[in-house]
Amino acid sequence: MTTYPLPATGLSGRLGRLRAATRGRWVVLGSGMVVGLVVLTALCAPVIAPYAPDAVDPTAVYQGSSPAHWLGTDDTGRDILSRLLHGARPSLVAPALVTLIAGVAGTALAVSAAWLGGWYDRLVTAFLDIVFGFPGLVLAVVAAAVFGAGLQIAVLTLSVAYLPYIGRVVRGAALRETRLPYVSALRMLGMPGSRICLRHVLPNLLPLVLVQVVTSFGYTLLDVAAFSFIGLGAQPPTAEWGLMVAGGSTGILAGRPEQSLYAGVVIVVFVVACNLLGGALSRRLLGETR
């Protein structure tokens, strides 16, 4: 005889239901608060920073934490906290532009390829596969050799490099979406293909696009920081997190790792928060749409 477990009752049952209802929400809340705090810092940096980011004080070189400089100073006497706060804006704007360009272009290519099919689909797929085979760092080196170093070149290069990460995933979902019965019904009713894609197919793909963009944002920030670290992105004396890590390398040898350490910690925390937020959104948005 088969027996079935009885539903939990009392305090333990209520606690179990509460854990089930809030499972994953704390991850979304915590990671979202970290991302939101960094974005708010980037917007309010000129107001909340205690010093100008490029204010040099030769008498305060390599000072430790103090009431005047909460996180200490760098090799030229600049306040590290002020540079971290001001560096949030270029460190976030560049990845935001990359994910925006790659997200829009990758989604447009994916949906159009899935809808038109044929030689156009094969051409788009081959293009995405070719770009996927080249690391973004290699593309950046080639672009810098041709056009020169700078944050704008890094943004354009990374936008091309991240096209496959969004386009390949969205194309697979778009192929499944365009084969659903409701799309065939709309075609039989004579609705134009562009209208079907814009009003029906694309809105159903937006949760997947959002997850891909949020997850890619953290990795893009890491790549932008790496470009600045090797001298291909932001240029001195710009306050930018990757450039701060590179600029603090001399301080590490002198026993003053604060500049590189604090900038590196901020980058790692933000990237981890983006990954957790993207994973949580994937479970909640995509899980609910399947």
From TrEMBL:
Domain ABC transmembrane type-1: from-to ranges: 88-278
Keyword Transmembrane helix attributed: yes
Keyword vocabulary terms for this entry: Cell membrane, Membrane, Transmembrane, Transmembrane helix, Transport
Membrane-crossing residue ranges in chain numbering: 26-49, 92-116, 123-147, 153-170, 205-234, 261-281
PANTHER family: OLIGOPEPTIDE TRANSPORT SYSTEM PERMEASE PROTEIN APPC, PEPTIDE ABC TRANSPORTER PERMEASE PROTEIN
Principal subcellular localization: membrane
Similarity annotation: Belongs to the binding-protein-dependent transport system permease family.
Membrane association type: Multi-pass membrane protein
Entry protein name: ABC transporter permease
Localization, UniProt: Cell membrane
Keyword Transport belongs to the record: yes
